[in-house]
Amino acid sequence: MNFEAIIGLEIHVEMKTKSKMFSAAPNSFSRTPNSEVALLDMAYPGTMPVVNKQAVINAIRVANALHMTIDHELRFDRKNYFYSDLPKGFQITQQFRPIGSNGYLEIKTREGGTKRVEIERIHMEEDTCKQLHLLDYTLLDYNRAGVPLVEIVSRPDIRNGTEAMRYVEAIRNIVVYSLTSDGKMEEGSLRCDVNVSLRPYGQKAFGTKVEIKNINSLKNIEAALDYEILRQNSLLLSGQKVQQETRRFDEATGRTVLMRVKTDAVDYKYFPEPNIVPIRLSDEFVQNAIDTCPELYDAKKAKYLAKGLSETDAEIILSDLAMATYFEKGLSLVKNPKGLANFVIVEVNGYLNKNGISINEFGLSAENLAKIANLQEEGFTHKQCADIFNHCLANNVTPEEAQKALNIQKQVVDEGAVLEAVTAVLDANPQSIADFKNGKDRAKGFLVGQVMKASKGKLNPAAVAKVLEEELKKR
Amino acid sequence: MSYLDLSISELHEALVAKKVTPLELAQEALARAKADNNNAFELILEDEALAFASTLTEPEADNPFWGIPFVAKDNFSTKGIETTASSNVLKGYVPLFDAAVIERLKAKKAVLIAKATMDELAMGGTGTTGHKGITYNPWDPKHTRLCGGSSCGSAVSVAANIVPFSLGSDTGDSVRKPASLNGLVGMKPTWGRISRYGLFPFAPSLDHVAYFTRSVKDSALALNLLAGRDERDATSSLRPVEAYESSLEEGVKGKKFAVIKEIIDSTSDKEVLAKFNASLEALKKEGAEVEIVSFGERLLESIYATYFVISCAEATSNDANLDGIKFGPYYGGKSYQEVMMNARTKGFSKLIKRRFVIGSFSLMAENQDELFRRAQRARSLIVSRTNEILADFDYIYVPAAPSVAREFGATSDKLSNEYLIADNHLALGNFAGLPSITVPLFLENGLPVGVNLMGRAFEEKSLFQGARAIEKITGLENLSAVNKKEGTL
């Protein structure tokens, strides 16, 4: 490749506050259209905006997580344009004084190193109506009108699709773990617009920028950019020009598709919002917002690693906030965090997938799962514990009740007892020993089975296997 | 003599003494409203008013507004009652909610009699641009003179003794100027003192809820009721409300009045000047200190242009919601653009479109520094100078207008200081958001002229005290077009 890709991202995050950015309408993402609408959201004359305090707190938390300078004076501006999804004919945003500026985020590069992506600004604004375009008319849903948004604008520091994907993933982790947003790209609560241009290596001036809008998953960010970079690259190599345009990503073909060619930029005629006087944020208020921020992804990950979890296991658990919350409820109750993690990742996830439910609908409490995990630490086999796990879920009983019902008893690990049983079985099965010596590995399994059978399953199979191996060598 | 010719406090006594009932008052006010021939009303609320008034049977001795009929300018949102701001763009719009001030008045059992005409969307100062046409000055039965605006119908309602109190709004001088031309007390308190929730915005940084009465005491009583924090208007002040009438009679001994030299110099009407000077002498006799102060001619000349740029810029944004999609007349169209263009083309008069073009032009990226931001800088210089003067003086005291109400068709030189300064200085109070009150000064050939008193932010109590002293000097308390009387100056 002869060209360097320059990528910048604008991310809109819908905040899950109780009410909207400037009105008292509930913000619970109702599925019934136009059921969560205040007078202001429909721009009735005489209605006035009142700033949502929780939205400000959320924005401060995100800004802090992104190492930004936080403006202690809150100001809002109007962005004026006419559009059918914009009830007031203007959007209240923070054009001139964003709440956060000049931050950064560290991401892993494709090559495995780390890289700092600078973030220009984060500001609060309000969402527009949702439109449903039908054949000859359009339906408007005002539920979304006025939903609080934070917009996070990166500097053009990203160079390829993988970095872009990891950047968005890191932002998503911050907004999800700070309880600012659901951060669901597929549902539109985290929306991503990407700008990409190419320039020859060594050139300072930027090339013509193409915008890709509304990419709906992390994977598609990578795919869309990788495709778009190749597209622009071949255009340039064949002597053609890149047009300034807006494209979208077509998931089916894996290509970006032209939406519209950009003409002159719209003049939004920004000016300060006269109905919101500048609000002074005290140092205490800002600090309190930061101090009370729920533990973020990175902190949790570090905590899990310190407790002995592998990076992969930590990431699997942290891929879902509800899962991590569930895991942490059990964490303080278990002897071995790794064992608990294993149950969460294998048994719990398996059960959820099989039954098509979410962790919030899961029937076993974290406390009870911790008890089961502890049983394994006490010497019960994983198989026994899994049986208890399944019995609990199937019959809605406690681990103690399940253990009793299944008559599960601790297996013997005492080497003397194991040796005694192993010796007896070996003595009785000289043919199997011979088979083993002749390279038939299956014979070992048979012998373990014989020992277990003779002991009625009371011996620990791992201990049996270990002793058997040693004894076989001696024969 | 009708009860409606009385002041609010006199009426209150009569109501408490059960000499008259709210229903009788409402009936009489409605009859007068219906007989009005000055085009004061968008809508007369006969059924609603009678129904409400008939529920008021037990007088509330400590509530001066109990049973008092009033009128509201048609830019106050009234639940279930069509509210158009005298614009076709809002024809048929029936709000779902009451403005904060309407709520307060209703809660105090004042009776809304009618919605008053106004200059379209409050953009105008003549009372001639509403969709129902010209509103006439009740002092001139021949209908040859301007009423002034934009709160024209509200001014008529009080000046014609239809009601003793009416709500208006004041963005440049829309209550205080018509007060001068109609012989009324017109009050605009500090920005943030009264909630604007439910007032249709024209230019929010300049908009104020304001109102007319026929006496300073009534004006103070009204502020007691209207002032106070409203969570729905984030710009409304948290400062406690005072008993605004409590120092009315304390006089002006030791109070310092600043008279702006340039405003006097640009007023040519000799009689206005003579009477104004007479009032100064009388104030001095009362123990007030009066000083002629220069404000700065350039600054004063800039008021009108500054006002026009800022107000048009804000208006073009505020009225962008009037697009035919959510409320107001819908004329159809093949695309959303066509729907909006149809609604706005048919809905707004030419004058409004002109203001939008000016406002939009001022906000364009390439013009903003030269127009909108320059106007903001000018505003800030003017405000600084105003506050500088008020640091040394209790009041700024000047004629509210250079003359009596003009005849229709009379032209004025729009570049003269008489126009730029003497006729437009009241916007000073809007730029700085300072409390400002107009009271009648005298009658010139049977037509009123007012003076204006402006005080420091949130010092309304002191402002009423000063205004009351002037009212005593002029002898024009309870003046109206029905109750014409010669003053004592």
Question: What does this molecule look like?
Answer:
The complex is a heterodimer of chains A (475) and B (489). Chain A has helices spanning 53-65, 161-177, 218-237, 283-291, 297-306, 311-318, 321-331, 337-355, 366-377, 382-395, 399-406, 415-428, 430-437, 442-454, 461-474; strands spanning 3-14, 69-70, 73-74, 77-80, 90-93, 100-108, 114-126, 130-133, 138-141, 148-154, 190-200, 210-213, 245-250, 255-261, 271-272, 279-280. With 475 residues, chain A is α+β, with helices and mostly antiparallel strands. Chain A has 3 domains: 3-272, no CATH class; 295-405, no CATH class; 415-474, Arc Repressor Mutant, subunit A. Chain A has a 9-stranded mixed sheet. A 3-stranded antiparallel sheet of chain A has the order 5-4-15, with no helix packed on it. A two-stranded antiparallel sheet of chain A has the order 3-16. Chain A is elongated. Chain B has 489 residues and is of the alpha/beta class. Chain B has an 11-stranded mixed sheet with strand order 1-3-2-4-6-5-10-11-9-7-8, with helices on both faces. Chain B is globular and about 70 Å long. Classes of the chains: A alpha+beta (475), B alpha/beta (489). At the A-B interface, loops of A face helix 11 and helix 12 of B.
* Major beta-sheet overview of chain A: 9 strands, mixed
Tally of helical runs of chain B: 17
**Overall shape of chain A:** elongated
State the end-to-end distance of chain B. 25 Å
Q: Identify the most extensive interface between protein chains.
A: A-B, 30 and 47 residues
Strand order of the largest sheet of chain A: 2-6-7-10-1-11-12-13-14
Which runs of chain B of at least 5 residues are low in confidence (pLDDT < 50)?
Answer: none
The secondary-structure class of chain A comes to alpha+beta
> How are the strands of the biggest sheet of chain B laid out side by side?
1-3-2-4-6-5-10-11-9-7-8
Range of helix content of chain A? 40-55%
Query: Given the C-alpha coordinates, what overall shape of chain B results?
Result: globular
